[in-house]
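WARN retry 2 of 3 for item q-0093 after timeout on previous attempt; input resubmitted unchanged.
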Amino acid sequence: MSDLSTCAAAESPRSLADPRVLIPLALFALFVIWGSTYLGIHFALESYPPFLLAGVRFLCAGVVMYGFLRLRGMAAPTLPQWRNAAFTGLLLLGMGNGLVCFAEERVSSGIAAVSVASMPLFAALFSGMYGQWPNRRETIGLAIGFAGVIVLNLGSSLSGSPVGAVALLVAAACWAFGSVWSRGRDMPPGPMNTAAQMLCASVALLLVGYASGEHLPAHPTLHATLALAYLAVFGSIIAFSAYLYVLKHARPALATSYAYVNPPVAVLFGVLLAGEHVGPYDLAGMAIILVGVVAITLAKQKR
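OK item q-0093 returned
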């Protein structure tokens, strides 16, 4: 009987809790959902100012998620976990996502995604601060990737908006440093990490928004409000949870691989749904950046 039970268990479908099942599903969410959030930000900015948009998005998602987890009996984060979540959330969501929203007032959603594709390049550099300096192949990938960033900034989209270009590069650097810094830290367990980071980041974003003179719209369009709801539910709760899951259960190179899938996805959504234009410098810069990121990823796998 025990042999039959063992065989039946071996033949049964894999559990949904199996990382071999969850990691591909999480990556699919990162590739498609996060690729579409750049266009979602573009639509939401029709009514909402950038920092308050990001603040409201993460506040709503964080409150819902934190309340749900507490009702399910999950323990609240400890004080050190709140501190670590606050610092990581400030880097990833506050400065990373907040500056993307700020930049998208000046550049197209597709170009914003292409610029953020430089994130793994910064991550490779920041890893050196913790003793993981790039090897020769990774250094070549870094050089290729940053050459792509230069080409991208020569294009009309970013060259006409230096403030937007700087904001996007700072956003990518902050996201990369936050991802590297959080590894091995005492973070809240599982999805509570997502909720804590969103709550902490929302406070910072709302403070920056109101301090800079932003105001919530009195009569936002339905289009913009639906985009905000999409960003909160799919972009924040689902996709960000997926990112933290992959970051914990897979190689960092795999966790950051979304960075070279999101740009073509975002460009495709922007062209098809928003009529955005992509120039030759933009395409060339995207191609070079992606070559550099792929080179770094392959070099990390070999190492």
